[in-house]
Design brief:
This protein has 182 residues and is mainly alpha-helical.
Length: 182
């Protein structure tokens, strides 16, 4: 977990390689649907362009489907899900059905100025259509209003680990591995 630009995607890829488990990014799954011009892609593209959240029912159905694929058997890492209380509740139900426990929730802390610098850099490199100033601002608001409250939920369960997300990719990755060892 963490606001846009906190490093979730970058660090997820590294952790999934280290542990040999798939990293499941709902944002990446949606972008693939948009690129492949699927029915779901047509539904979500305008929502993503605005920086709003895709409706919970749509997101949960896609994630549920992904989690039943066999590559998740050794474990998996979620990136960008859950993002709302309803999604967190749905995740609990899905995991109960699969008889799987959520081991840890990582949350990245990065100061606002650094987040903006990272987003602008990514906009120049990757050309994501939702990395423009107006949409970025909206995505921060949505994170604060809808997703940040989930941190308390996972903190209360004793599985939230907060990571200092400042510094280089390798520095942050080292902190994550240290925290996971504990
Ligand atoms: P991300 O790649 O995680 O930054 O996600 C990009 C966009 O995809 C978000 O701004 C949302 O529009 C959509 N999205 C990704 N994950 C979710 C989610 N869990 N719930 C709702 N919308 C999502």
């Amino acid at each position: 977990m963490g606001p846009p630009g906190a490093g979730k995607g970058t660090q997820s890829k590294k952790i999934s390689q280290d542990f040999g488990i798939p990293e499941i990014s709902t944002g990446a799954l949606f972008r693939t649907h948009v690129a492949n011009q699927t029915e779901l892609g047509a539904i979500v593209s305008a929502i993503m362009e605005k920086g709003e959240l895709v409706p919970d029912a749509v997101t949960v159905a896609m994630l549920d489907d992904r989690l039943t694929q066999p590559d998740t058997a050794p474990g998996f890492l979620l990136d960008g899900f859950p993002r709302t209380v309803a999604q967190a509740d749905a995740l609990d139900q899905i995991l109960a059905t699969l008889d799987v426990d959520l081991d840890v929730v990582l949350s990245f802390n990065v100061d606002q100025e650094t987040l903006i610098q990272r987003m602008l850099k990514r906009a120049a490199i990757e050309g994501r259509s939702d990395d423009n100033e107006e949409t970025i601002r909206r995505r921060f608001e949505v994170y604060t209003a809808q997703t940040e409250p989930l941190l308390a939920l996972y903190r209360d369960r004793g599985i939230l680990v907060e990571i200092d997300g400042m510094g280089t990719v390798d520095e942050v990755h080292a902190r994550i591995m240290e925290a996971l060892k504990k």
